[in-house]
Every structure is written in structure tokens, then in C-alpha cells.
Design a protein that fits this description.
The chain is an alpha+beta fold. It is built from 5 helices and 7 strands. The radius of gyration is 15 Å and the shape is globular.
Amino acid sequence: KKPAQPLAEGKDFSIETAGQNDFSQIHELLQSSGLSADGVDPQTGKYYMAAREPGAIMGVLGFEAYGTSALLRSLAVGPQFKKCGIAKELMEYVLHALHEQGFHEIYLLTNTAAKYLSRYGFVQIDRGQIPADILAESALGCTCPDSSTCMYLKL
């Protein structure tokens, strides 16, 4: 099977901050990707989306802030846009934004993307190494199974 044609941010789509009206579509994308939408809202975190036009979300990635640490949440790309570079553009955009905003430690939990995320420097850690406040205050403490892979990146 041939890979899909790469798409370019700024030409084929833009990355923008998700607004209140985007969250029903974001929840649909997450659920269709097998991810939980629990706790995904503008009050708990900041979410970025790749979109061709308003209302046409191609992918999403968000984070929750905990001091100088951040928890990446909900990387998902619509099935018709897989292998087009959307996830790569979102990851690079958000990691750059986190660095610029002064975050030093990035955590995440994943069930399927550990190998992919290691490309960005994330390393596997034990769940107990994620700060207790992040697990307690985020939805991850109750929505991610114990079998999830925990990962860490030092910026």
C-alpha cells in the first residue's frame, strides 16, 4: 500500500487553537480513534487542531499544564488523513510551543504510539514516575488503563 501524499502546514491546512465550538467535533474524532474524550475541554487544557477550514478538523493534540510540567493529551488524526504528516506537524508545533512557554518536562500515556513518540525523544518510564498531582488532577488517572505505556520528555 502506497503512503498517502504528504500535506504541508500553511499550504494544505493550518494549526490553530481549538475554540469552544470545536470540542464536539474533537470528541467525535477522539472517540472514533479509540481514545477517551473524558476531561478534554477548554477548561482543563489547551488543544490545537489541524484544519483545512473552520469545522473541518483533520487532527488534534492537546496538553494540560502543571507548573513547568505538561501532560500531552489526545493525539488523533482522522482516518482519511493518516500518513499525511498531520501528527508530525501537530507534535512539532505543540512541542515547540511548550518549549517557548517555559515547560521543562512533558509526560504522556499511550496504548499504541510509543514507538512513534520515541522519534521525538520520549522515553518510557514507570507510571510511578509521573508526578502524583498530574495523575490525580487529570482524567488520566482513571481513564488510562494500567497497561498504558508512560513516557517522558525533558525539554
